[in-house]
Design goal:
With about 180 residues, this protein is mainly beta. The chain has two domains: about 15-70, no CATH class; about 75-180, Jelly Rolls (Sandwich), CATH 2.60.120. It has strands at about 15-20, 25-30, 40, 50-60, 60-65, 75-80, 85-90, 95-100, 110-115, 125-130, 135, 150, 155-160, 165-170, 175-180. Strands 6-8-10-14-15-12 form a six-stranded mixed β-sheet, with no helix packed on it. A hairpin with a 4-residue loop joins strand 14 (about 165-170) and strand 15.
């Protein structure tokens, strides 16, 4: 089949590309949109493997370009409510830097784990103590196994005022792992 000009798939149809023996396919389906969206594909192939398509522009027209995953680190800063006592932190779906403040007058507050619901393997979270009281990351202490934090040497880590800790989620072991702290 050869198409020229603009072709339209109507009524929620599917544009499907089949492999050479017609046993597998890749499909493109439009979502339930409230307006038109235009994507302009790159004019060239990616310069190396492990690239992804990134959209630039503003709605409704976007230009897609090849990008390197290592160059696209974007931090979304969130400030959850002040913490106190002991327990698991609930993290947002997209927040990567959590500004944590403490409430009360305790010598430190314990973080037993981080919520892992919907967290993909490789997710990185930076905890920043903006409070005046130390925070303590507890080794393997959460009641929910997938929320637990594995710390080097099996000991707890203290995050003092203005200190940070960087964690990555290991989907294989279903645990958070400490990358660095200060």
């Amino acid at each position: 089949m050869s198409l020229n000009g603009t072709s339209v798939v109507k009524s929620g149809g599917t544009l499907r590309f089949e492999d050479s023996d017609n046993t597998h396919s890749t499909s493109i389906v439009a979502g339930n949109q409230t307006s038109n969206i235009n994507y302009t594909l790159p004019a060239a192939e990616p310069i190396s493997s492990n690239r992804f398509l990134k959209a630039t522009g503003t709605s409704p027209s976007f230009t897609m370009e090849w990008s390197n995953p290592g160059s696209e680190v974007v931090y979304e800063v969130t400030s959850p409510a002040a913490i106190g006592g002991s327990g698991d932190l609930t993290i947002s779906a997209s927040g990567t830097m959590l500004r944590l403040s403490t409430s009360g007058a305790g010598p430190s507050y314990d973080i037993n784990g981080l919520s892992s619901s919907g967290v993909a393997s490789g997710r990185v979270v930076v905890l920043v103590n903006v409070g005046t009281i130390s925070l303590k990351l507890k080794h393997q202490s959460s009641a929910t196994p997938a929320n637990r934090i594995i710390l080097p040497g099996g000991g707890d880590i203290v995050i003092g005022p203005d200190g940070t800790a960087t964690l990555v989620y290991d989907g294989t072991s279903q645990r958070w792992r400490l990358i660095s702290s200060n």
